[in-house]
Here is the input.
Amino acid sequence: MQKQNIGNAGEYYIASRLSAENFIATLTLGRAEKYDILALSPDGRAIKLSIKTAYRETAKSFILSAKDENGASNDFYYAFVRLNQFNKEPDFWIIPSKVVAPLIKHSQEIWMKTLGRKSQQHKETPMRQLPVSVIPTWEQFYPNWSKKVDQYYKNLKQLQ
Here is the structure.
């Protein structure tokens, strides 16, 4: 599958789930730099979502960028969608930006202080990762995250 189609599938999937929960949702179709979906909750609260999508059911993390460390707000959320290669219903996590931003910033700071495989200093990169399944080697970067991430799994209620 083409990367653009994977991203589109994630956006349309979340928009359909929001619509099923009586949200009014519209895709920005690339017109808003940071937001993929603008929505109005059933009680009239406006929210913004950035959608990150993975195709494979083995995906344990999602790629973000250094820009995602900034701009957190009470009405801004990330939706992380794992399409599971369309072999089963997609998995998704709705996580407030106020959780994502400090988490990836802190994990990047820890990563920069640790040595690489060949005992060299890591070089700064704009890429960041947010795990949804924390493997043991990631625990140092995301302490206690494996216990917390489950509360965001398929949880659209927190948007209302």
The mean pLDDT is 91. The beta strands are 24-27, 37-40, 46-54, 61-65, 76-82, 91-96, 127-131. DSSP finds three helices and seven strands in the chain.
